[in-house]
Amino acid sequence: MNNISDSVIFPKGSKMPEPFNKYFTGQAYLEMLVSGDKEFNCPIGNVTFEPGCRNNWHKHPGGQILLVTGGRGWYQEEGKLARKLMAGDVVKIPANVKHWHGAAKDSWFVHLSIETNCQAGPARWLEPVTDDEYHNLD
Amino acid sequence: MNNISDSVIFPKGSKMPEPFNKYFTGQAYLEMLVSGDKEFNCPIGNVTFEPGCRNNWHKHPGGQILLVTGGRGWYQEEGKLARKLMAGDVVKIPANVKHWHGAAKDSWFVHLSIETNCQAGPARWLEPVTDDEYHNLD
Questions:
Q1: pLDDT tens column, A111-129
Q2: What range does the domain containing B60 cover?
Q3: Which residues form the Cupin type-2 domain (chains A, B) (predicted)?
Q4: In total, how many domains does chain A have?
């Protein structure tokens, strides 16, 4: 298992803080590169997932863009097959589409998260991705 | 001189298209990762500068964020000392601040460019950074 968490471009940051940590299965880390201020209206976080870690199903009222910088992971929209992700991949998540993202079982995973149209409001967090759902991905 | 242009995370893309190419000294490359559509309101480009390449002085009516992914380069605001940039650096460029960015003399340079508050309008391009200004940076 590689240790990509020590070799990424942007800082790994700290363990995912509350209240967000409770919407993750496994340990994730967050470094906010740009805050959610009213000057730029463009919150940007660097999110690192340990192997097997993923977030709950959720929706962004204004959408979200993921830019994958390292490791291997997954992105899935409700009712669709999961998409494998690796460095260089870009995910454009439309507003209010129920989805989750996270690491592969056997790899760290790192992406930049850019909240778009953030004036629409914060993410709405839903139920976890079950072990059955997650372990049947491959 | 390293050849970082072949080893970056996101695609290098094509030679900077017109009308933008005329606002650069030297050769730059552009891959748009996210277009400037009305769904996300968040144009994201991957910009690669060959050694010595830099853009003209310019202003963004809505601001811009740079996320440096490779190489070494410079960012300068009018009336201030230039800031050296390397992978992992984040530059938050306020609206209407006159500035330029580009590669070091002896290195390729790669950054993501995120246009913020893009409804404020496109960049206003100004005069080139002269050779005197550029070669006196170090």
A1: 999 999 999 999 999 999 9
A2: 4-135
A3: 47-107
A4: 1
